[in-house]
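The passage that follows is intended for readers who have already worked through the single-chain material. We present the inputs for a multi-component assembly, then the predicted structure in tokenized form, and finally a short commentary. You are encouraged to pause after the input and sketch how you expect the pieces to fit together before reading on.
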Amino acid sequence: MSYLELLKLASPEAIVVISALVVLAIGLMSKRGTVVAGVSSAKPPRKAAGITAATGWCSLVAALCVAIAIAAVLMLPRNANLFGGMLVITPLTSLFKIICLALAFFTVGLVRSEKSLRHPGEYLAIILLATVGLMLLVGSEELLMIFIGLELLGLSLYVMTAFDRTDVRSAEAGLKYFLFGSTSSAFTLFGISLIYGMSGSTGLAAISEKLATAPVQPLLATGVVMTLIGFAFKIAAAPFHLWAPDAYQGAPVPSAAFIASGSKVASFVVLGKIVLVGFGPVHGSSAWHAMTAGWSPVLAVLAALSILIGNLVALAQTNVRRLLAYSAVAHAGYTLLGLIAGGREGFSATLFYVVVYAITLVGAFGVVAVVRSETGGDDLRNFSGLAGREPLVAGCMAVFMFSLAGIPPLAGFFGKFYLFSAALRAGGNQGLFWLVGLGLFGSFLSLYYYLIVLKAIFVDRPSGTAAALDDVSSDLLQRIAVSVIAAAILFVGIMPDILASRILAAAQ
Amino acid sequence: MIAWTIYLAFAGAAVLLLLPGVCARWIALLTTVAGLALGIVGFVRTPIADLAHFTTIVSVPWVPPLGMNYHLAIDGVSLTMVLVTGISAVSAVLFSWDVEHRQREFFFWLLVVVGGCYGVFLSADLFLFFAFYELVIVPKYFLIAIFGSTNKEYGAMKLTLYSFFGGMFVFAGILVAYVTAGSLDLNQLAQFHFAPQLQSWAFPLLFLGFAVLAGIWPLHTWAPTGHVAAPTAGSMLLAGIVMKLGSYAGLRVAMNLFPEGFQMWSKWIAVLAVIGIVYAAAVALRQHDLKFVIGYSSVSHMGFVLLGLATANVLGVSGAVLQMFSHGVIAALLFAVAGRMIYRRTHTRELDALSEMNLSHALPFAAFTFVVASAASMGIPGFSGFAAEITILIGTWKTYPIAVWITGAGMVLAAAFTLRALVKSFFGDVRLQTDRVPREADWNEQSITLAEKCGACLLMFATLAVGLYPKILLDRIQPAVEAMRFLK
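Having made your guess, compare it with the prediction:
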């Protein structure tokens, strides 16, 4: 194995790392002097123009490099395995690297509209580093490498969350996210070390072989549960979701979108690999009348709690980003159903659902960004009368909300059908009917709060504060991005086969 | 060819969405008239023998790994429903000719409802069917919440959540059928033998979910509030076709897939249906709002449909399908008079206020239409309501003789509340209050427009034609019903 070959196989990651450095350099060179300014003083127009230009250049370079990285992923060989699973290339990893890069691309697009950023170069560089974390997570079947990916992703996200220095809520969100995140990382590391101690290996395939012969014992159970806790935190499953509402609401919009989309997709991919490949032999059963110990009942409890808590708390929210956060908890619960079902079908149902969910959320945060830049806030009353001001953006938001609620002909509807049918089939004699029923009840509840958002947009009259800042120049690019995402969701909803059969073929 | 009814409606909706500055009402009229024309051509041209089975029109693989197909099919029952959808849609557009506020959006949502209804009546794949079924729910919310009247946001939310609540049970039932049989094709599923133990709980799950939309007692309360809050076209479509989605789906999916479960539960459906007929009629007798009277009458008449389905014999079920057609037309007519002809001009629907206005002189055409609609609704021979209800009652007599006696009382009540509404709204006793006869300034007196006349004539013609010669529909419905599995 020559070094050059390694570089070739890791070329997408390398490209993204280099681009992060380039973006950082551009950000440092462009008008550094004018950027450093007092926190609350009004900006002179020239300074603002300088920042905007820097943002434009940096995001252009970042978007270009992400596009090149996607091309590099396409040129990778079909299958490869380096260092016992540390870097794995399969159709599945390539597909999800592309999806993560695409989500990063749209997140970079969102940065342009974020007016409060003082250091666009640093911000974009951190987004790109987080993207590297996603790609490492997706492309690895080895616990140590997964942990490194998790930490790279996590540290970048903490900084991204706290990046808005002018907003105290951003700092609060960052601190909360960091404290919860580092605690859960400790849990994961402890769990991994126990698993390593029992199996003598950190490669998922090797662990699976060892566990197949070993009896279920308390030490193993501790290791499994602790590892899962770390991931439950990452996917914001109840009761480990407490950071999510603050992070979604307080973080700058692109950070929130990235946490909700890219981070979630990669976490579900890697969680699926760990439980289905690594912990495969200790599956257990979560069928209602035949529960046996294993990771599946643990996930089932997490899923049930997430669906109930997420949906019930979301009913009472008046801030759209907070509402999206609680609905994210609920959606994490639905998505877990596919992993609990297990097998190729369950895994691909999970992947389909989480991809659709991530794309929808990026779009929804795009709409939030538009509303924020127009009205200066993201409460429900800021959305009132949006249909009159911005019919296109309002229509896109309707698509996103209905897709989340699972209304045909949008992608979320097919995703739910796929997920629930996979779960019901796997249980054997409808053993998982209790979870599916809970999921259906949850999506019934969820329609109410999604409709409340749409009621504000389409039915309510614009409130007084909403029209105040209307003179902000409209960002055409962002509108195009949001409509492209909405069109994609409609298209995948009408022709789900395009995505579903690809994922099904990739999931072995 | 009849599949184009679906595509046309959605194409019309897409045109309205994408092209600003088009004449929205003409596009809506054009697409709905084309849909009706396609329905009529299909009705005339398709040989009756072909309508005895659920014959495939289109079948294209959709999501092969999951066994989903884009599969449309038609038989006598579907064709009847397609026809009534076309009639209601055309008249709904005609009766909303005066919508000016956010016109494009209004007709967009209206066409989506119409397209979704066509889709439900024609789909032969369970997933496709469910997609269309759920698709209809959301536009109703916007139609009511944006364009409605009286308490519209409450009514819209209640209606949507009730529909989605039912949809939740339907989703569960469909998943169970799919996972157990491993197929989504309705014709294949109708051949599959589900275990009786499974049928005993899956049937009520599925049927109850559908029956929420059909307005089964005690889950009917969304219907009156929703109808009252909706704009005229909204209530016409709601009562005319959307409620029929529930009963049609109960027949096509729940009863056909789980015949043994149906045998176990049919008498309970009959009990609920009879309670619904009598209870809703009694409530209608006490209402002060004209639309509430009609809303409760819808629940009562839908009770007949459910009773007909519960009889489980050819006559009863065919009568139920005929009643779906008949009530679709009559309810649309009643709501058109109450919502468009009266409310738009007088800005009130209070029966006491209307009785002081001497409307029969001011709006003779409206009075004539309402008399016809009331007669049809009461079940006077010669109108479709009579033909349908008598068929259902004969069918019921074979299975549940007691139910016929109780329903008889319900029909007397129906006559009572209809006549009360008719007399109070149009033939108020003005001599008693000579000082309060028409105060011109109070209401915006306009003569009935041409669009309204066309719509009313279309609906009146439909109810008369079927009333005088019900065989034209029954000939097509009965063989299709006989072919269904639960009768064997």
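Commentary: The two ends of chain A are 26 Å apart (CA to CA). The first helix of chain A runs from residue 3 to 9. How closely did your sketch match?
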